[in-house]
Each structure stands twice: as structure tokens, then as C-alpha cells.
Amino acid sequence: MRVQDSSMSAGEQNGHGHRTQPHPIRIGVIGVGNMGQHHARVLSSMKDVELVGVADINVERGLETASRYKVRFFEDYCDLLPHVEAVCVAVPTRLHYAVGINCLLAGIHVLIEKPIAASISEAESLVNAAAESGCILQVGHIERFSPAFQELNKVLKTEELLALEAHRMSPYSNRANDVSVVLDLMIHDIDLLLELAASPVVKLTASGNRTLDSGYLDYVSATLGFANGIVATLTSSKVTHRKIRSIVAHCKNSYTEADFLKNEILIHRHTTANSMTDYRQVLYRQDGVIEKVYTTNTDKLGAELEHFVNCVRGGNQPSVGGEQALKALRLASLIEQMALEERVWNPLDWESEPRMQPLTPTV
Questions:
Q1: I need a surface site. Which of 35, 37, 125, 355 has the fewest CB within 10 A?
Q2: E-strand spans in 31-160?
Q3: DSSP 8-state class, residue 119
Q4: What is the pTM of this model?
Q5: Per-block average pLDDT, block size 10, for the chain (363 residues)?
């Protein structure tokens, strides 16, 4: 059965007409590896949130985390569920569905790390389970909460967008080696570009390479064509000796660079202006201007978790819910397939090649 919230919301009043304080949302963290550790850290310091406990099959790691934040440890996450209203799921991708579906069926609100699941069918089941249970399902596409992206989105709403370039590169690490670079890194930019282009994908090419022994693609480049004429290129790598996180927007009247590491946006505009002497001699010529957009230093994870808590408390749908995450996963799966097969995809392929049907995206 779904966990019921018997206390009044922040806007409700008691019998004497005074506003009551909202009860703390009881939350647990399932999986306290690399990302789960950060979830536990942020939740432990959030206002109106009670971090009840953490769960992990690694007992030593789970006990250490529980001790650090003075909460309970559960070796079996199912034992945690009766004590919470919501959970953050940060287990390996292959376990997203099994853990997520059990939580939703128990009436628990879920924030699950990206990608939403290891397969499209699993993701669809999670979306359906959330709808049937009435629970919040938010997916950890954390870059949506980047101050740089939020400002970039505002800037581009006033521009005529022609093309987008996204680069997400990292040096090799031991994390997230159970998925390809598409599902680990590129899926962030897939979600962002779908949001910025706001149009269906009608053409796709992709290629990639394996440079490690993991068996998964470590470097992938993809080119997308959108129905509204916008084109986009995405490049992601797990084996680049420099960390890069950027999106560049080519617009009719500007060229805009967003650097997510520096949290900086630069807008380049073409202009011509001359400074003249009294004798009509040109002292200098200005051929362009650069505008710098100032952003906040908001912590992305903190903003994401605060959004989740507000959705749980208010019943609002998250900005990156299951449907948006499913759309990104469909496109990511198709990019991965095209990169493996070195093929060009076109919607007409669906009619001539039935084997493409399972990956048909609605993007």
C-alpha cells in the first residue's frame, strides 16, 4: 500500500489559524557507491528532509556511510521501504528496473539515476508503474539543473537556432563500466538537446569505437537531424585525457558557448563599428562583441534533490520524469545500435526492416 502523508502541508493551518511546519519527508538511499554517497551527503543536510537510512549489498561500505550520517543501515533495501516515503536509487544500471519497480509497487516515490533502465521495455514498465501507483518517478538527468544549462535555455529562446554541438569527454575511470559511453555520458546531452531543439528527430548517423577491454563503446559521435531543420552533433568519450562538458549553439545572429565545468556562457555577436579621428581617419574597427552571461553557483545535485522533495510534497510532476527519460533512452539506444552497425537511420527504415521495431523512438 502507498505510504500516506497524514500531516498538513506548509500552506495548511491548524485549528487556531496558525501555519504549521511541514513534516520532514522521510527518504532513504539505495546504493551508496560513487553517486549514492553524494545523495546521502546532500540529503543529510537538507531542510525538511529526514535521511532515514541507506541500503547496500556491500556491508562495509553501507555501515560506514550509515555511521557517517548517523542513520540506519539495511543490507536488504526491501527492509528500508516500510520506513520511508521516498528513495534515491543509485544502483548499477542493470538493477534499476528491479529496484525501481519494487519501490513503486510499495507506494514509494522514486528518484532513480540515469539512464532510467537498461532497456526500453524496462523503462516503459517503470513509467507505467509510476502512473498506476500515483508515485513520483524522477530520473537523475542532473544537467537539467545546471545553472549554465538553465541560462543557455533562456538565451536560446530569444534566438533563431540553427545547429547545436555537444561535447562530453572524460579520462578513463573505473566507474560506470557496465554500460557504453552513450548510456553513461552522452545520454545527458541527448536529454538536453531534445529539450533545446523541441522537435522530433528525423535523421541520425552515428559511429563509435572500443578502445578498452570492457566490450562497450568508449567513444561515440552522432549527428541528428530534427524536423524543424535544426542539426546537432554529439560527441562523448570515456578515454579522452581532458574533461570537457560543453554545448555550442549556432544561431542566425549569434554563436553561444556554454561550458558546464566553468559554469560560463559566452555569446559572440557580429557587429561593425569604427572609431574615427576628427579627420575621418579610422583609429580602430570593432568586428564583434562577446557577451558574458553570469550564472549562479547553485549545486546541481542539491537543486535536483530539492526539486524531487518538492514534487513529493506537492504532488507535482518532475521536470525530468519517466516520460522524458524514456524518450532520451529510446534515442540513446538507437544511437548505440547505429554506432555499432555504422549505419544511417531514417524513419522509413521501420517499414522495410522489422528488426528495427523494438528500438523505434518517439523523439
A1: 355
A2: 49-55, 72-74, 86-89, 109-113, 137-140
A3: S
A4: 0.83
A5: 39 47 90 96 96 98 97 98 98 96 98 96 98 97 96 95 97 75 96 96 92 82 96 96 96 95 92 57 64 88 97 94 96 93 63 42 45
